[in-house]
Specification:
Elements: E1 2-3, E2 20-27, E3 38-39, H1 41-54, E4 59-62, E5 65-78, E6 82-89, H2 94-105, E7 110-122, E8 125-139, E9 148-152, H3 161-170, H4 176-190, H5 195-208
Parallel strand pairs: 3-8, 4-8
Antiparallel strand pairs: 1-7, 2-6, 2-9, 4-5, 5-6, 7-8
Helix pairs in contact: 3-4, 4-5
Length: 212
């Protein structure tokens, strides 16, 4: 199996639901990668078609370690951006919960793919014209500069003032001190179940791009 991908820094856009994330696993706009490799769109299409016909799903691993199975890819499609995927992390497992926490904290900001591929030598790298996608990994770094995590589940985890502070910092991008002050001021109102709390709740959801 060949590891083919690299990514850019993590950026959370909105919540997708319990344990889900979204991103570009391979960016067509950032080829060749740092190894000089290029994946043709037709190779990505063939990889998707294989899984569709077999009704299988690529694994979600951590750093390409088969012993660290975090979940599975539940949707993938080829767009102008590249291979876009939606993953489901197993929140019932220690590995899955740890993976989600690390995505939200920025410790696993990137996506990387592992595939069995057919290629021809091209310059310092290869052109891949067919591939079998085995897994998509959550990782610190990869090879394709445009592959990244774009969306992670977030708001439904908020049950304490500390959770809110973390969300404002990691998702909304607030500085630590501002996130702490905002959470301290907002949480008593949100937790009061009053109309004012509902309005503030809605405003914060809009701030982080979370769905109801």
């Amino acid at each position: 199996m060949r590891v083919l991908a690299r990514t850019t820094p993590f950026r959370s856009v909105k919540a997708l639901g319990q344990g889900r994330f979204e991103g570009v696993a391979w960016s067509l706009a950032h080829q060749p990668d740092i190894s000089g490799d290029i994946i043709l769109p037709s190779a990505i299409e063939s990889a998707i078609e294989r899984h569709t016909k077999a009704r299988t799903r690529p694994d979600v691993l951590i750093e390409h370690d088969k012993g660290l199975l975090a979940g599975a890819i539940v949707d993938m499609h080829l767009t102008d951006r590249g291979l876009e995927v939606t993953g489901q992390v197993d929140m019932g497992s220690t590995i899955g919960r740890g993976a989600m926490e690390k995505m939200q904290s920025g410790e696993l900001p990137c996506l990387s793919i592992g595939a069995e591929a057919m290629a021809e030598k091209y310059g310092s790298g290869h052109v891949f014209f067919d591939m079998k996608l085995e897994e998509v990994s959550l990782c610190l770094q990869g090879k394709n500069f445009g592959a990244r995590i774009s969306d992670v589940k977030s708001w439904t985890d908020v049950s304490t003032q500390r959770d809110l502070e973390r969300l404002l910092r990691d998702v909304a991008g607030m500085p630590n001190r501002l996130a702490r002050k905002t959470a301290h001021a907002a949480w008593p109102v949100i937790d009061s179940n009053s109309n004012e709390g509902d309005e503030l709740n809605a405003a914060l959801r809009q701030l982080i791009g979370a769905t109801p």
